[in-house]
């Protein structure tokens, strides 16, 4: 009797295994959304236009064909848009591999706070996403299918994450960092800008400066490079200069930027920037052999030129009232008057002067012997 | 005189003849000369005929005196005088010759040693090292160990277990190094052993361990004399057993099962590397199938996008959930392994080819199993074989199914749960009072620490 009971129990337990479960979807029954794009709707001002780029898995990795589907949906909210998009596909939408949120420029100039909050709130979204501003629209950028793309939807993220290309014009930004900067006092968010130029090429060479929720300015290419020089360490880039009509280009090897907020004189506060660059001479028009003395001369010229342009950039940022480099955070972090320090900083920042000191060392003439 | 304790020859002979009725290989010999007569009874199959002829029959006719002949027999260290019929019978069955001389019964050990020559190790191979393995003869095994461990500290205690099989055991240990509590525990457990027949060393393990149902071995079986010697020198106890080519080593902790003799032979760095590889293999063989299930069914976001799309693509034609896919393929692999162990060597080659190549490729081409799955099963099978001691690798083989079940129902959380409970289970195990999961055998002994020892 007892063994009969045991067998019945086992049989019942075993039959559970045979049941087709519900709410259980294997990897092949999911569609992976790799990027989301948000634009303003052209027809209805209350609605936004959401684009979902979905990667379609291919069985044969050797074939190299990349298939993606772009689903666009106009809706009042993103939560609603997803539910509506779900009824357009045959499988479960999975956001686990969503690695990018693209804000169309027009939308980014309004307010990205709502969507950004959604991306960090949703359970299956990763905080390692790469947010970016898309020009002209997010949909247009998502539609671009680069010829070099080997895995569906991967090209944008290889570039944005700097895993693939290492361009001095890309300001790598994570979603968690963006959200943090959006709430942090004393540091303002930045986002890289992706431009769709043609059908197969994406261009990421600018950076957008945001106040707490919307894009205020987009820096130019050269300014973006200088911004990255100030923001990152060991930026690998080139700098060019014309001396007496001859062009010299250097390739940077190591760069380092440090600053100090000098407030020894009330009312005449300065932010002292020290930028040190180690570089190698890469290109020159002058045919005469280069000597170390010649290098020193070039260094001097570079120092002067870079000092000037960095100061200009910093003053430009200062004028917008934004603080993407986090001066305010540094100021607040190094002062004890917690109640008043940020008010004090708001007073100081607009009137602060920038003292930039660039020290470039060209360590090699680049000749190979 | 203590004649009442001695066995009366006539009575004993009658009794013996009664007992040995219908046993074909009993040989009886009457030896007679002018002085008197002697009677030999022995089992032909168990005794050495040369020894019987040379030492007993020839001598009997040469010596010509009953008194001298009896003294001659008594001079053998292996001769004895049985106290009762049971002892007489038992020793005869073991290979003694019963000698009825005048009114005495004497026993002489004439056991026929059927020792095969020392063979190279077959289940624990090493690259560059001693190649001998234990034989099925306990004396030869004793010799193999003594030869490598020449000290009087090496103690040997004889014992017999098994009511019918009367299997001889030798407990070997280094008296200076052995943990006496372990020794006491072992003797206690062996004396409590109540089984009729013991034929292999692993049976002793099964009967002596507590609790009876366990997944991982707590006694090590080895066929390598050098491993036995190394373990004795580390203070462990070896139990040699007659008629089996394996020796029990105890206590054995988890880490011991991941040690091959190669580790000592190779340079230290390489030894550590090899050991690290084995632990990596352990992790892979236990975790891979369940991680596959968890990743494909529950948490695909953990993988890189490339792998996710690859798995999704190759699974597109597979008609059932990933857990079934894994189970089917793993079972197929187990069948293959099991089949190739049991089959004759000539056939097993083709069996593995048919199974591995044809089944694997055909299943993926037909779209019944994903490509990734086949790679995974192969990896699991290979890594399972990396574990040097067979008993452990069997335990590991079973463990991975538990993990698959957990991951099928609970995904990644289930695997974490499984790891935690596996570690808790392993730490709860004891091998003759020694903590099982004590890694690397370092004694963190402090004064007054109740946990130490």
From TrEMBL, chain A:
Domain Spore germination protein N-terminal: 25-195
Membrane topology field: Lipid-anchor
Species this chain originates from: Paenibacillus lactis
Xref: PROSITE patterns: PROKAR_LIPOPROTEIN
Domain Spore germination GerAC-like C-terminal positions: 206-366
Name of the protein in question: Ger(X)C family germination protein
Top-level taxon of origin: Bacteria
Keyword Iron: no
Upper taxonomic lineage: Bacteria, Bacillati, Bacillota, Bacilli, Bacillales
Family listed: Belongs to the GerABKC lipoprotein family.
Keywords for the protein's UniProt record, in alphabetical order: Germination, Lipoprotein, Membrane, Palmitate, Signal
Localization in the cell: Membrane
Main subcellular localisation: membrane
Automatic annotation (TrEMBL), chain B:
Keyword set includes Membrane: yes
UniProt keyword terms in alphabetical order: Membrane, Transmembrane, Transmembrane helix
Chain ranges passing through the membrane: 279-298, 318-337, 369-389, 401-426
Classification via InterPro entries: Spore_Ger, UPF0353/GerABKA_families
Region forming the signal peptide: none
UniProt xrefs under Pfam families: GerA
Keyword DNA-binding: no
Similarity comment: family membership: Belongs to the GerABKA family.
Name of the protein described by the UniProt record: Spore germination protein
Lineage, highest ranks first: Bacteria, Bacillati, Bacillota, Bacilli, Bacillales
């Amino acid at each position: 009797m007892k063994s009969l009971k045991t067998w019945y129990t086992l049989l019942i337990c075993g039959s559970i295994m045979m049941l087709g479960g519900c709410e259980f979807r294997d990897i092949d029954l999911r569609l992976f959304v790799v990027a989301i794009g948000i634009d303003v709707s052209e027809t209805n001002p209350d609605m936004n236009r959401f684009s979902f780029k979905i990667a379609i898995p291919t069985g044969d990795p050797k074939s190299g064909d990349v298939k993606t589907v772009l689903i666009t949906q106009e809706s009042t909210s993103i939560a609603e848009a997803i539910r509506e998009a779900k009824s357009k596909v045959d499988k479960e939408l999975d956001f686990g591999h969503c690695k990018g949120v693209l804000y169309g420029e027009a939308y980014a100039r309004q307010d990205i706070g709502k969507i950004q909050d959604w991306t960090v709130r949703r359970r299956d979204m990763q905080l390692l996403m790469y947010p970016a501003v898309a020009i002209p629209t997010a949909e247009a950028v998502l539609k671009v299918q680069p010829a070099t793309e080997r895995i569906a939807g991967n090209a944008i993220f290889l570039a944005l994450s700097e895993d693939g290309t290492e361009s001095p014009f890309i300001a790598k930004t994570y979603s968690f960092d963006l959200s943090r900067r959006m709430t942090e006092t004393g540091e303002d968010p930045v986002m890289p800008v992706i431009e769709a130029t043609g059908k197969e090429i994406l261009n990421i060479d600018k950076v957008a400066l945001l106040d707490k929720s919307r894009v205020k300015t987009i820096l130019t290419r050269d300014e973006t490079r200088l911004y990255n020089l100030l923001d990152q360490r060991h930026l690998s880039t080139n700098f060019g200069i014309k001396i007496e009509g001859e062009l010299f280009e250097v390739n940077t090897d190591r760069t380092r930027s440090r600053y100090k907020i000098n407030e020894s004189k009330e009312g005449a506060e300065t932010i002292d920037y020290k930028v040190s660059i180690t570089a190698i001479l890469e290109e020159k028009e002058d045919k005469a052999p280069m000597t170390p003395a010649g290098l020193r001369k070039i260094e001097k010229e570079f120092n002067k030129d870079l000092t000037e342009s960095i100061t200009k950039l910093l003053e430009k940022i200062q004028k917008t009232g934004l603080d993407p480099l986090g001066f305010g955070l540094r100021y607040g972090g190094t002062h004890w008057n917690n109640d008043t320090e940020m008010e004090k900083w708001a007073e100081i920042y607009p009137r602060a002067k920038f003292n930039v000191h660039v020290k470039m060392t060209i360590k090699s003439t680049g000749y190979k012997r | 005189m203590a004649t009442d304790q001695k066995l009366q020859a006539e009575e004993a002979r009658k009794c013996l003849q009664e007992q040995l009725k219908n046993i074909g290989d009993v040989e009886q010999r009457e030896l007679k000369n002018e002085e008197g007569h002697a009677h030999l009874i022995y089992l032909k199959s168990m005794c050495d005929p040369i020894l019987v002829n040379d030492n007993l029959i020839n001598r009997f006719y040469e010596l010509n005196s009953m008194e001298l002949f009896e003294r001659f027999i008594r001079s053998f260290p292996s001769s004895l005088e049985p106290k009762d019929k049971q002892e007489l019978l038992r020793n005869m069955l073991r290979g003694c010759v019963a000698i009825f001389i005048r009114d005495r019964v004497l026993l002489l050990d004439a056991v026929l040693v059927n020792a095969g020559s020392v063979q190279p190790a077959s289940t624990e191979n090493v690259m560059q090292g001693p190649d001998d393995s234990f034989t099925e003869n306990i004396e030869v095994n004793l010799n193999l160990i003594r030869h490598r461990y020449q000290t009087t500290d090496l103690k040997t205690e004889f014992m017999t277990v098994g009511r019918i099989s009367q299997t001889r055991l030798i407990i070997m240990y280094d008296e200076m190094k052995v943990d006496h509590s372990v020794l006491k525990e072992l003797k206690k457990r062996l004396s409590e052993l109540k089984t009729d027949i013991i034929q292999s060393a692993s049976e002793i393990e099964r009967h002596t361990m507590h609790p009876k149902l366990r997944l991982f071995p707590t006694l090590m079986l080895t066929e390598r004399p050098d491993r036995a010697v190394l373990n004795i020198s580390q203070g462990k106890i070896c139990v040699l057993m007659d008629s089996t080519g394996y020796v029990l080593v105890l206590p054995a902790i988890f880490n011991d099962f991941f040690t091959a003799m190669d580790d000592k032979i190779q340079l230290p760095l390489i030894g550590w590397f090899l050991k690290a590889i084995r632990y990596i293999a352990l992790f892979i063989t236990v975790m891979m199938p369940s991680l596959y299930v968890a990743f494909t069914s529950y948490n695909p976001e953990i993988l890189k996008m490339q792998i996710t799309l690859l798995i999704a693509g190759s699974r597109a034609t597979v008609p059932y959930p990933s857990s079934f896919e894994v189970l089917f393929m793993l079972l197929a692999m187990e069948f293959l392994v099991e089949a190739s162990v049991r089959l004759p060597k000539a056939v097993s080659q083709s069996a593995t080819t048919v199974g591995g190549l044809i089944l694997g490729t055909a299943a993926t081409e037909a779209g019944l199993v994903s490509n990734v799955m086949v790679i995974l099963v192969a990896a699991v099978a290979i890594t399972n074989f990396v574990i040097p001691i067979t008993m452990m690798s069997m335990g590991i083989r079973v463990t991975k199914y538990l993990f698959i079940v957990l991951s099928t129902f609970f995904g990644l959380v289930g695997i974490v749960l499984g790891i935690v409970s596996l570690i808790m289970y392993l730490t709860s195990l004891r091998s003759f009072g020694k903590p099982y999961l004590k890694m690397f055998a370092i004694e963190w002994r402090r004064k007054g620490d109740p946990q130490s020892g």
